[in-house]
Amino acid sequence: MNAKSLRVPKRVKLSDQIVESVKSWVAVNQMQPGDRLPNERQLMEQFECSKGTVREALKSLEVQGLISVRTGPNGGAVLERVPFEKASELLRNFLHFEQPSGLEIYALRTLIEPEIAALATPRLEEKDLNTLEALVKLCEIAPDTFEERIEQRIAELDFHVLLAQRCGNPMLAFIGRFVNDMVRDLMIFKKAALPEQHEFSCANLAYHKQLIAVFRSRDAVGARKLMLDHMKSAEHFNRELEGRLNQYFLGITD
Q1: For residue 64, what is the DSSP state?
Q2: Long-range contacts formed by 69-77: CB under 8 A, 24+ apart
Q3: Which residues in the chain come in under a pLDDT of 50?
Q4: Domains of the chain, CATH where assigned
Q5: pLDDT value for 188
Q6: Please, are residues 102 and 186 in contact by the beta-carbon 8 Å criterion?
Q7: Quick one: DSSP state of residue 188?
Q8: In this predicted structure, what is the pLDDT of residue 96?
Q9: Which residue from 31, 193, 192, 182 is spatially nearest to 106, judged by alpha carbons?
């Protein structure tokens, strides 16, 4: 047998074993944010380890956003719901060096946004529809400054974020919000130097107005179809913008 084919299993630190055991225990017992973990002494006895090892495990859970550690007589480790913003930031950091293109991001949007729109349609309350209308209204006036232009683009994305939050599917909601975060990063850090695409903004505005009308009529099938058309249009405009972006960085002008 070739010695290179032999692989010695990596030894998992005890603190990491405790972390995984705690996660499994939380899942099996369907514990919720605000519930307390066993105290340090109980964890030391259960895992037959030192206080330092337990504290290392708790620190790891805290860094991951799964617990907060409180001090004082009523202190201890308390379960926390990981904020979307933290999870999104970590995942975007993971993808940072993968450098997904705008076309790849918009291709994913084309797959998920129509389903999000259909699922959200019966769940949108009057206050949600009013918020969507306010976001549309913000984009109706031509921007005078770069800051106003960015504000309007973010409002366009917030329109889609609200739909994701109301779709009723936690996995789809996370992916939808995450993809819109990726688009926001792309817009602010990669394309801010390019001239505004007025036609793109007008198309977004028109689609959003039509979508609100469909939402108000509770037409989930119509919402899915209209959102698919919207995403195909956005993907088309982004393809053109990617070409202009490449020319811009290569120093090619018309």
Answers
A1: T
A2: 76/36, 76/37, 76/39, 76/40, 77/36, 77/37
A3: 1-6, 8-9, 248-250, 252-254
A4: 13-79 (1.10.10.10), 84-250 (1.20.120.530)
A5: 66
A6: yes
A7: I
A8: 77
A9: 182
